[in-house]
Fold:
Amino acid sequence: MKGTSVTRTRGRACPLAMVLLCGLALQTVATSAQAQDSRRRRTTQEQKPLVLTPEQTAQLTKIANDRKLNIDDLVAASKTYTPSGRLDEYVLFSSGGQSGQVFAIGVPSMRLLRSIAVFTPESWQGYGFSGLDDPVQERLMINGKSVPWGDTHHPALSETAGDYDGQFLFIGDKANARLGVIDLRDWETKQIVKNPLTISDHGAAFVTPNTDYVIEGGQYGTVLGYGYAPPEDYKKSYRGMVTMWKFDRAKGRIDTTKSFAMELPPYWQDLADAGKGASDGYFFINSFNTEMATGGVEDGKPPFEAGASKRDMDYLHIIDWKKAEKVFNEGKVKVINGFPVIMMDTSIAEGLLYFAPEPKSPHGVDVTPNGQYMVVAGKLDPHVTVYSIDRIKKAIAEKKYTGTDEYGVPILSFDAVMEAQVEVGLGPLHTQFDDKGYAYTSLFLDSAVARWSLGGEYADKHSEQPWKLVAKTPVQYNIGHLCTAEGDTVSPDGKYLIAMNKWSVDRFVQTGPLMPQNFQLLDIESPGTTMPVLYDLPIGVGEPHYCQMIKADKLKSWGVYPEVGWNPHTQSLDPNAPKKGDEGVTRQGNKVLVKMTAVRSHFTPEHVMVNEGDEVTWRIVVNETTVDATHGFCIGGYNINLSMEPGEYTEFRFIADRAGTYPFYCTEFCSALHLEMMGYLHVKPASKGTADAATVK
Amino acid sequence: MKGTSVTRTRGRACPLAMVLLCGLALQTVATSAQAQDSRRRRTTQEQKPLVLTPEQTAQLTKIANDRKLNIDDLVAASKTYTPSGRLDEYVLFSSGGQSGQVFAIGVPSMRLLRSIAVFTPESWQGYGFSGLDDPVQERLMINGKSVPWGDTHHPALSETAGDYDGQFLFIGDKANARLGVIDLRDWETKQIVKNPLTISDHGAAFVTPNTDYVIEGGQYGTVLGYGYAPPEDYKKSYRGMVTMWKFDRAKGRIDTTKSFAMELPPYWQDLADAGKGASDGYFFINSFNTEMATGGVEDGKPPFEAGASKRDMDYLHIIDWKKAEKVFNEGKVKVINGFPVIMMDTSIAEGLLYFAPEPKSPHGVDVTPNGQYMVVAGKLDPHVTVYSIDRIKKAIAEKKYTGTDEYGVPILSFDAVMEAQVEVGLGPLHTQFDDKGYAYTSLFLDSAVARWSLGGEYADKHSEQPWKLVAKTPVQYNIGHLCTAEGDTVSPDGKYLIAMNKWSVDRFVQTGPLMPQNFQLLDIESPGTTMPVLYDLPIGVGEPHYCQMIKADKLKSWGVYPEVGWNPHTQSLDPNAPKKGDEGVTRQGNKVLVKMTAVRSHFTPEHVMVNEGDEVTWRIVVNETTVDATHGFCIGGYNINLSMEPGEYTEFRFIADRAGTYPFYCTEFCSALHLEMMGYLHVKPASKGTADAATVK
Structure:
């Protein structure tokens, strides 16, 4: 025994342990609070301006040289590094692609703050793991079959007067044409609606300026209402569509009874954007495959990608949704698969739908902050094409058509509606805006971001010629969408741009054949030709498609639920939530009711005795009101796992169909005695034999 | 039309578009490769040493002051910032807690590189979404029921001679007592084994120094073999256990036929660690609740957390696994639920199992790099207790027992086996090591990391007194486990330490009531009292418990599969993989076989015609050999989603049980014509009526 610092009686635990034990939960919090205070002081105290001493400069230089950093790296590090406890300025809500989730990322630190489970069950959040009648599992049923994954593409933050209000987030599932509604008070998915017309879509979600409607555009032509028709009947029987989901802000839910769709030609509708300001009341959808190619390489026909790219121009869809709403309210619809649809003939007759030619195979259509211009980026054309709402309105009023398409939709004269074209580079795809009169377009083939100057009333905001390419920054690699701070609202902030690169190739440690995406942060604060890459963030938890960046202080998230006994599904206090003192297990026939409370560090009751075959309803309330005092609850082998945030109430139900001794325990490391926060579900065998066979000795 | 930079004929897409179209996929790659080269040059060129000019210093100072950064922040930023294309030095493999996944994080940049799906289906990775007979879904069955989530606790990298070899990663599921095997060539889970003795466990996974065995310890006492016994029979019928899973490195699989378990008393066994060097052949497990408390607050009894903490000392389990392997091979086992178990009587008689007293409710037992010392951190005792293997061996040889426990297991004299005790602070939990003779212990209640000096042969490595607390750094908040670079191997690297904090409270933007964890990076390069926090990484995708940090260049990951047609389930070329030219759809009765190839940017065939009710087997091979050229494949509404990395072959099967027109498409944004990479599954209705009803017009 060579120890020199042994200060206690060997062979027994220090008496301190007993003191600790009694108030352990409390002490845990107190300790945290103290540490917290000391860090807080550091972060909020008046800080003297930093003046680097020669020693400090030498220290930084040495680190830089040891790590082979240059001055650009040091600048980028200084612009992104966010010390402990300092909050990010923006939150980026990104779709998670085929992970079925949404990801929230802090900017400028580029740290993934949280995933939000939407279309794919996720056990950390306890999303979809609460037994029979699990509300998530029920939501994920399509035609009686579970489809527990999604391909999330376009998140849309709720807006008030065209500006993000931080209240809700909508997200579309391309694979299964579903729409999810997330409440940003508790960051939980509250509703999923399935489109009754089409199996898959693409252009969801986009909101109108006051979130009256959430727009879900289609994509691949289909027989509306999940119908069947052979490909040779494509032109006759296949259709496109756009669905207008009515949002009830007070209830925080889509109101399906007030929602409707519009039939569209079987072109492949792509992204949408709602008008605002000058263009309020309209929305715009791109399309491709106006050739109505039906592929068929297996029969020696041109493959889809060639057939769908033959024509020089596709059609920008211009839709007057306020007029469409009126037509819907007048009942001028056909009901398909139980859902009201304004048919094309009606749309044409009522003047709801117009086309404008747009350079082939576009992806994004993006409305400028003032609502005056629609920017279309056609990935096979090196220009962006800018349309003006004034010109569009005038052309409609003056019937400046060059004809109709084969379904009778009027086509506006390109010359009449086009405002400008700007050559930006190869593979333009998506455009957003800043506060200085610039637009930013992603260039997939160039692997670059282009900055270009807007004209019209924006011409006064910058010193460039209007409608002109100003700068390009290479990104790594193959950028899809991009996003600037509040860059698709009426008042973009500029500052930061996210390049959502689809390939990362050599940017990160090789993670097997499946590589992360690469989100690059660009500094767009300075006008002119400089917009350097500041940061590479690997996204290895999904393949995001689109994101929106909101000022963090607009989010009014709950730290704890408003009251103990809160039901997040109803967003209200639940009358079934057990009260302290009411805990216990009761039985009626083979129906068992468990009333449980959970608090650091125990469950009450700790033993639940049931019989094999019993139907068990289990209610748990978390008696915690401290931020971050989350508990989990799982029953091994029974596929039950809950995440129970402070104040939360949960009910779940299952059949105790297999005898045995099942520990349940808290799955969130909540306190020093977390491992002891457990109990047993005892499922007594129906026949005595089962138990004996397994019992040892 | 005010545009000034329009250089093309208005009204038509640039002819360039047609050129682009033909070679688009190729160009995409070429563009990437060029950009890649230019970035590579930047990162690998000989860089002139940086000498900051006054202007550059002023620039940095201005940014720092604008963002209220101090010199410590600038130093931390410089030490962690990793420029685009520069690879991280280490990879941290972290359990994902109740997310059921594993996360890989780059160090020092602290960027989440990738998740690896293990116990929870994950659709981005196409893990568990391949229809009938999906190998993942089959793996996740327990007693005929799907349990598609896990509570991953302890990852273990495979070792050769006690050092990480970068080949495999094992991960335990506490909730359901399962073990996952991940192949680090393609970062995919290859096998899941369910423990046949217990529903839940805790102490998995830990490997022996050459990965002969993967150790899975139990936790909550249970009736072995999933049996039932009432709690009043606890001492008689409940047991602990440890399972030794035999690993077949050549096959990359656990060999369940050569695996065995050992019966233990119904104490709650906790973490384990295998001996190495001086202690090779042994392993060590902590335990708590040697009181065998059975809780029962509902009946006014002491709750588990009090009952399980009454005694001053619990028992460190010392197990001679080489001798146990011999006993197992001699057949001295009892078969429980089909699995061989060495019963306690045998273990005692054969000298396989000894106890040493340890201060109450310990969590971690950690063996020093030389194998000489076992460090036990008891969370209710402010000391770490150090045992010496020499003393243990001597005490066993000399039978220095103070008696036996009530199951007859010999208890070694604490004085005989204890080497030292070091007072480190409140709530010590887990210890790892560096290359300078220091140990690091997490302090849950203190919210701090303690550095202390080792003695024995380590005393020469540092200038401290041996067995003495040297430094403490506060962390935010409530640290659980920690991890140093290769810190539990025979040759730790020091440099970096990860504090795995369970609460983040105010460190990040509030993400609703469910908050991320906080992984803090500490700089432990300098000996002595300085070890600052460099970085806070929010973990909002799970609740990690434990991690290991490996030098990145030890990982020999595949960028693409070795051959086109590779089956990752068998890790070999699959004879069923369709060849280019063999694509098509064939039928035998109601069984349809689809042979498909996928390459940028099309699937062949593009149309698949089946009849309602057909059983469809679908084989796809990805004809790509370029790193990061991944495709996805989904069929909307049919719950099929694959991730198909370059060269990968996949087969899936489903019943076409609902008529309709189902687009399938590539779910990974693979190329400029990605949206056109699609086709249709046409499911012809059995009765003509179905189609007509839904068809429009």
In short: Chain A touches chain B through 265 residues (CB under 8 Å). Chain A has a mean pLDDT of 92.
